[in-house]
Amino acid sequence: MTFPFSVEVESWPIAGSFVISRGARTEAHVVVVTLGDGQATGRGECVPYARYGETIDGVVGSIRTALDGFSAPPDREALRAAMPPGAARNAVDCALWDLEAKTSGVPVSARLGLTAPRALVTAYTLSLGTPDSMEEAARIAAHRPLLKVKLGGDGDRERIAAVRRGAPESRIIVDANEAWSPENFDANMGACVAAGVELIEQPLPAGGDELLRHADRPVPVCADESLHVADDLGRLAGSYDAINIKLDKTGGLTEALHLRAAAETHGFALMVGCMVGTSLAMAPAVLLAQDAAFVDLDGPLLLARDRSPGLVYEGSLVSPPAPALWG
């Protein structure tokens, strides 16, 4: 006999559309896991991602199969052994952290040694578009201190310059989502230097990024699609300057903490990012990101509405989660 749990699929409308080099979306489809132990319940949210071969049905099935194998909520190390990294394990792992906090009365922040977690400045994402449309989007968002600019490969020099014209005072990071090539790498890098860009996320395809080992990198380069778990770090050394930790890639907060510690040992700068989801998905990442060089947890800001209660955003400043939400 298994313990009580539920797995629900939710759809949240995106404000407008969210466009990257791989396509556009108007909704965020998330999976929410709720676990019980007879005293309390805990929740976790994940976002299945087709880039990694994940589907909603596949993630839901994986979660149900894994949890049906336990007669009580598993400990988090048993979960790591039972499920591979990815979105499915993330939802369960974060639900376990929340359940443990609710049952014990000890917040996750305290268990992580964060006596007073602070509000963080998050990047705000500008979708891929024409230079003119991106300049206008940058102008509208120019009051935000940190912008993350989605790029698409050819034409990115013009896009980068346009965003800088639209937001002359904002700090800028860019994310190519694997869309650059060896042929346009140097020109696009030069455009980033000219615009004062501070970080370039995943310019080249994962598995096709050997050029980075030998290329000039006047702007630091951050691994996203090339990085999932701590075991990936060894092959990235010398090619990347930073890594983007996302809970949906690592398979939860437990693995993300291992990855963060290992990355610091290897000397990588840290970014904590997200898929487009609700505050429930962002909440554990806010705690993980307390010492990160770059924070990209704007998922709820891109939605037409968020769950309630949600995280508190004051402009681009996101506060740690309240217990009613998570942890």
From TrEMBL:
Its EC number is 5.1.1.-. Its cofactor is Mg(2+). Gene3D superfamilies: Enolase-like C-terminal domain (3.20.20.120), Enolase-like, N-terminal domain (3.30.390.10). It is an enzyme of class 5 (isomerase). It comes from the Bacteria. Keywords: Isomerase, Magnesium, Metal-binding. GO terms for molecular function: metal ion binding; racemase and epimerase activity, acting on amino acids and derivatives. The active site is at K150, K246. It holds the Pfam family MR_MLE_C. CDD domains: L-Ala-DL-Glu_epimerase. The keyword Magnesium applies. Binds 1 Mg(2+) ion per subunit. Residues 131-222 form the Mandelate racemase/muconate lactonizing enzyme C-terminal domain. Belongs to the mandelate racemase/muconate lactonizing enzyme family. This is Dipeptide epimerase.
